[in-house]
Amino acid sequence: MHSIQPPHSQTRSGVLALGAACLTLWGSFHAVADDLQVQARLVWGTNNPKPEGSKYTPLDAKGREKLRQFKWQNYWVVNQSVSKLDSQKASRMSLSEKCAVDVKDLGNGTAEIRLFELKTGTEPKLVKPVHHSISALRKGEYCILAGDDKAVWDDAWFVIVTASEPKH
Amino acid sequence: MKKEQLLELQACLDGERDAQRSAEMEAHCATDPNLGAVREAILNSRQLLRQHDPDHHVPVSREFYWRQIERQITPEPGNRPTPESWIPSWNLVLRWLVPVGGLAAAVALFQLPDSPNTPPQTAKVTSSTQLALNTGTAESTSVEYRSESDGVTIHWIH
What we know:
Helix content of chain A is 23%, strand content 39%. Chain A is an alpha+beta fold. With 158 residues, chain B is mainly α. Among the domains of chain B are: 3-52, no CATH class; 58-76 and 135-158, no CATH class.
């Protein structure tokens, strides 16, 4: 004897299946978003050669290509750091004694990148917050915060934020 | 000296006339002291401007520099003003009622004493104040340059 499911039972099963599918998709999306590693590099733009004894490394060709609008001959990577893009809390990356950035997944497809100025004995000073598309970062887009170097005339600093392994 | 003669002299000095006409004008300047004096004055002014006109050096390429100016002049599509639409009379009332009501609610909120069970909001207020102060300072203003084709967004902070 065959049992026939009532129509409302089929509807309930369909809703449950759809809900399960949505949950799976949502979970997988968040799992992927949680896996994103963000790299921040502090770069010094200058026409001067590398200071003797420093551990600076030249910026890679892809990075130089992104900065081709600028005039400097040399771009020295002063420091770099990698952190996980988290939606719960901002991940702080210290790039020098005076500079740090933190990144946070805002949950709406964008990441907030905040640049801080560090001073001993005081709270970090927020210099600039920017929002950047996470999907753009995944595709290899560069988010760069830059400005004039206050210490050295006519030089500049760059904080280059990318996905840790940008797709080429 | 006629105005036409002066304009012709300027045209010759600017290279807008052929060699023959320019040579004729040179000969004319040599014989006419007034015209010769004007010629000297124009040449001296040109030389002074070339020597003393200040160069404006920018740390970026010409395209980048002018693109920023273009972006500042040209409003974004979303920010363009839309023409005023016809508003019904009750909409006019709502138009005033909503902000006035909001203002009254905000005033009432601040006037009411804090409940002892209300959690302290100090951290939140401090955070937003800090943000406002920092973004309001001159050094945190920035110019944004974005190129989708190059895959780069640059925030130049002043």
